[in-house]
Amino acid sequence: MIRTLVLAGALALVAGLAQAEEPIVGNWKTVAGDTAAIGPCGGGYCITLKSGKYAGKKIGTLAGTGGSYSGEITDPADDKIYSGSGSVSGRSLKLKGCVLNVLCKSQTWTRL
Question: What is the pLDDT of residues 5-35, one digit of tens each?
């Protein structure tokens, strides 16, 4: 009986942790068709390319909660760093990178 209660409590804890995960965490298809993984790191979320020409390269760090994030985005082709932001809506992640908050480019990724 005690063993069953402990197991039930552990399962409830795991379910609660899964529900608490931020919507940005997961694998995303980029506009180039590559796969990017976003996961927790150092109090925020790191973006790492998992496929394509730049596979294995970290291309961003974002922080935030509830579907709205900000931080830095790196262009993998030239390693230039831009101030960035992201917002999750359903299965879409809209990312925006800016230079001096004036020249901005956006792209939308799709959850895999």
Answer: 344 444 344 444 444 689 999 999 999 999 9
The residue ranges of every structural domain in the chain are 23-111
**Predicted confidence (pLDDT) per residue in 31-73, tens digit:** 999 999 999 999 999 999 999 999 999 999 999 999 999 999 9
CATH code given to domain 23-111: 2.40.128.520
Tell me how many helices (H) and strands (E) the chain has: 1, 8
Residue 11, SS3?
A: helix
User: CA-CA distance, 27 to 75, in Å (whole number)?
Assistant: 18
**Buried/exposed code over 62-84 (b: 16+ C-beta within 10 A; e: otherwise):** bebeeeebebebbebeeeeebeb
